[in-house]
Design goal:
- It is a single chain.
- The chain is an alpha/beta fold.
- It is 45% helix and 17% strand.
- The strands form two sheets. It has a seven-stranded parallel sheet with strand order 3-2-1-4-5-6-7, sandwiched between helices.
- Strand 12 (296-299), helix 13 and strand 13 form a beta-alpha-beta unit.
- The two termini are 17 Å apart.
- The protein binds ligand GMT.
Length: 374
């Protein structure tokens, strides 16, 4: 099939997932056309020959308040549909991508089919934004199929976007592998003493991630268990987080690592992954933690409750319940057998449900079903 993939060029989240899906589809001999405003970092690191990148150029004009990206994107999608004779266009993250693909399809009046995958904040936050949701709802209803990255997100989408039917549920996949701890001893020694535990958080440090709760949990845990905290990623909340670390006098125990390419190594040497988000459609970093044998402590929000099995692969608590999350982390870190059992359960859960060879065929199946429909 000739498939267009429309996404943000971000490393993580919906953009990172869309890029990984494009690579997996290309490796299965589909012809992929990736459309965005710049080359996704993941693609630049591993670029199968049957992926073509189509750049959307921003428009600068004094009269315009912004770059008119949605119009330029729609224009580019229509151009690629025509010139590359696409069978399917798959948008990732509803805003503005669902609007652009459904408009482009009307412009070209071709048989091309359009699908949108809902990832999380496009539904949980944007889906409720009065300035956006009517247009997004209209566009989503124009699509030939919708998917969501978890059952709870699909339910949230049906409600927020007044959909007749619930989107198809196709979970995220990860390709990360655990690195053996014996090989990571020298790396671990950079951040922690041999007898210290390592807690880790990975995100884009946006308010929805509640990173302030990560710091409070770590403060409680480090009062009881000798430990260090790794903070991986960067984003708008970072200045606030640095102030909180300073306020709690934790500077000597917290490592701000910024954006990291090889997160699997950092995860593999860690003992607990913290993710106390307000909302999560699913969460790729938590899934990567499981794939590296790291139990997850976090909030029981949306997709997280489907990914994590309490007391088997981690423990989830009510959003904001820092005391309970701290206690759960201390319980796991203080009981070697409990930790080991959770670590192995997490590895097995990913192998069983969240590998590319399980997830990618579900997208291909949906593409074929949509192409057969009228
Ligand atoms: O996690 C982020 O904040 C990035 C965000 C996005 O909107 O790109 O990721 C979303 O898509 C990921 C891939 O499907 C999901 O695993 C994340 O849970 C989801 N993020 C949120 O819902 C906050």
């Amino acid at each position: 099939m000739k498939i267009g993939i429309v996404c943000y060029p971000s490393y993580g989240g919906s953009g990172g997932f869309a890029t990984s899906l494009a690579q997996e589809l290309a490796n299965r001999n589909h012809e992929i056309h990736l459309i965005s405003y710049e080359i996704p970092f993941k693609l630049s690191q591993n670029w199968p020959e049957n992926i073509t990148f189509h750049k959307v150029d921003a428009i600068e004009y004094p009269l315009f308040k912004d770059s008119q990206y949605t119009i330029a994107l729609t224009n580019k999608i229509a151009e690629v549909i025509r010139e590359e004779k696409l069978d399917i266009v798959h948008a990732h993250y509803a805003i503005p991508h669902a609007v652009s693909v459904s408009m482009a399809r009307k412009m070209v009046r071709k048989k091309v089919k359009v699908i949108t995958t809902l990832h999380g904040t496009d539904t949980t936050i944007m889906g409720k934004d009065q300035n956006l949701n009517q247009t997004a709802e209209f566009a989503l209803k124009e699509c030939d199929a919708l998917t969501a990255v978890s059952d709870s997100l699909a339910k949230e989408a049906k409600k927020n976007y007044n959909l007749k039917t619930q989107p198809h549920i196709i979970y995220n996949f990860v390709t990360t592998q655990k690195t053996s701890r014996s090989k990571l001893r020298s790396l671990k020694n950079i951040f922690a003493e041999t007898d210290e535990k390592i807690l880790i958080h990975v995100s884009n440090f946006r308010p929805v991630k509640r990173v302030q709760d990560v710091i409070k949990i770590f403060k409680n845990v480090s009062n009881v268990i000798p430990s260090k905290l790794l903070l991986v990623g960067d984003g708008p909340d970072m200045p606030k987080i640095k102030r909180i670390v300073k306020k709690y006098k934790l500077e000597s125990k917290v490592h701000f690592l910024g954006f990291q390419l090889d997160v699997a190594k950092l995860l593999s040497m860690s003992d607990i992954f913290l993710l106390p988000s307000q909302k999560e459609g699913f969460n790729l970093s938590a899934l990567e933690a499981l794939s590296c044998g790291v139990p997850v402590i976090g909030s029981n929000t949306l997709g997280m409750s489907e990914m994590i099995t309490d007391n088997k692969t981690g423990i989830l608590s009510k959003i904001g319940n820092v005391d309970q999350m701290s206690k759960n982390a201390i319980d796991i870190l203080s009981d070697k057998n409990k930790w080991l059992s959770m670590s192995i359960n997490g590895l097995n859960a990913v192998k069983k449900k969240y590998r590319p060879d399980i997830i990618v065929p579900q997208y291909i199946e949906l593409y074929k079903k949509v192409l057969k429909s009228k």
